[in-house]
Amino acid sequence: MAKLPGVWLLIILLTAGADAAAANSEPTPGNPDREQAGESAQEKAIRKVRKQLEREPGNSSVRLDLARNLAWAGRYAEARQECQRVQSDSRHAETVYQARKLEAQVLSWSGNQKVAGEIYEQLLAERPNDVDLKVGLANTRAWSGWSREAEAQYKSVLRSGPSPEAELGLAEIYRGDGRWDDAEKRYNNVLRARRKDPWGIRGLNELRRSTMVTLKVWPGFFRDSTNFDRDTYGARVDLLKRRRLSIRTGLVRSRYEQANGEQIYRTTLPLQGTLQVGPMFSLSAGISRNNYTEAPDTTSFFVHGLLAPGGDRVRIRLGFDRYDLIDGADPLEEYLYNQAKSIEVARQEINVDEVRAGIFLRFTGRLTLDADLARGEYSDGNLRTMSYSRLSYRLPTKPRVDLYGAFYYQNVNDSSPLYWDPSNFQSYALGARWEDAWEGRHHFALEGQIAFHPNEEDLLGGQIQGYTEWDLNDYLSLRGSAMYLTSPQDRSGTGEDYDAYYISGALIARFPHRGSQPRTRGTGNR
């Protein structure tokens, strides 16, 4: 079998990055956008205030009202400009103070948490008892990823007196951490104080959605330029999501077609569980039985632990995977890099015993490092050592944009049965990821990168991948995913042109049950 091009290690690099991001992504406590009655109504309000300002061009209070409406409409640059104009033109100290306060809020809503936090700190030095300033500063910490620091600041506010905004901030953090009962309590506190608070109602609805029984059904299709095809059909069910011990199971059916036209089918039955001990520790384990039509049956399993001794600053991952060479240990997730493996390796009856250790570090609210080390030990004693790291920087913008650099390294023994995997393989990559949501129901992300392989014939590689998900209602969602990669020949022509793509669609259904229904204690939210 010919050596596969080095671009498949690029897929490993990208997939490792996606998995690491999923394992260590911080919850975004609350949406910084203001709830609106509708865009047309907001624009009408802006036009009305502008007309008033034409009649009273020197009225700083009216101009501040214009800035406030522009901010609510999401026109942050214009809103900040009006705030700064009020600060320079007004002679009233209280109006200037309110303009500075609104400017900090606008900056926070637009994603620039660093500058917003600096303004809040300056204002707090002048008015240390202003609760709105304290909550605003806590919001900048929460939306920057410093959830533990934000949690402490929200609690500090509540020790001084009731604050629905601080309660809401805590509720969003707890929901992001999977602390459902604590989140429910805080949302109800918000709704006791403000019966029709839109964010309290929305938070309870999101909590209900998050803890429903979920069924995901998907087909996926993979093709490449070497005529290696793979089709996968799967179903996944998530149960007991509100409990400390949640369960996931399903069924996956795959078809592998080789370049010579040979086809082999695989049926996988997995069972997995996750124990959430607390915000500092979780443990996941899973086992699956793999049945092949033209190869011996295999059993795969994994055990993963996540420890957060540094809260949102430091997270440590430890894990052990055992799987055959066709797919990873978790068949309910789509591991794109395994789609390149030839089915012939199953006949060698080789299992991978892989020990993993990783660490996630947050240096600032926007700069993070994710590093992973994995060693694969094979049945015949051969070794493969892999390491991966990704340094990401989140731009101070909204929507969310991350820039990153990544490095992947692999070393394989000369006698390894994985004779298509190169030894001393290195890959350096630069990439960007863009993600956003529209109207709370349409979510999407797009990621692309280019990679350089200094010791391979295929010197360059590139990939673009993305997904879009549309919530039809509270119970049904449609999701589409796509990936394309390429590895062109080098200038000497010694390498191989290579292209591959993967497309997948999914239907996600949620089923309410008694345990998923939030208890709205006396709030009137029904």
Description:
By secondary structure, the protein is an alpha+beta fold. It has helices at residues 7-24, 39-55, 60-72, 76-89, 93-110, 113-126, 131-143, 147-160, 164-177, 180-193, 198-210, and strands spanning 213-224, 229-239, 245-257, 263-278, 281-292, 298-307, 314-324, 351-362, 367-378, 383-394, 400-412, 425-438, 442-452, 460-471, 476-487, 498-511. It has a 16-stranded antiparallel barrel. A hairpin with a 5-residue loop joins strand 3 (245-257) and strand 4 (263-278). It starts with 6 loop residues before the first helix and ends in a 15-residue tail after the last strand.
Topology:
Layout: H1 7-24, H2 39-55, H3 60-72, H4 76-89, H5 93-110, H6 113-126, H7 131-143, H8 147-160, H9 164-177, H10 180-193, H11 198-210, E1 213-224, E2 229-239, E3 245-257, E4 263-278, E5 281-292, E6 298-307, E7 314-324, E8 351-362, E9 367-378, E10 383-394, E11 400-412, E12 425-438, E13 442-452, E14 460-471, E15 476-487, E16 498-511
Antiparallel strand pairs: 1-2, 1-16, 2-3, 3-4, 4-5, 5-6, 6-7, 7-8, 8-9, 9-10, 10-11, 11-12, 12-13, 13-14, 14-15, 15-16
Helix pairs in contact: 2-3, 3-4, 3-5, 4-5, 5-6, 5-7, 6-7, 7-8, 7-9, 8-9, 9-10, 9-11, 10-11
Averaging pLDDT over every residue, what do you get? Answer: 82
Number of helices: 11
Q: What's the N-to-C terminus distance?
A: 63 Å
What pattern of helices and strands is seen along the backbone?
A: HHHHHHHHHHHEEEEEEEEEEEEEEEE
Strand order of the largest sheet: 1-2-3-4-5-6-7-8-9-10-11-12-13-14-15-16
Q: How many E strands? A: 16
Note the main sheet.
Answer: 16 strands, antiparallel, barrel
Described by the principal axes of the CA atoms, the overall outline is elongated
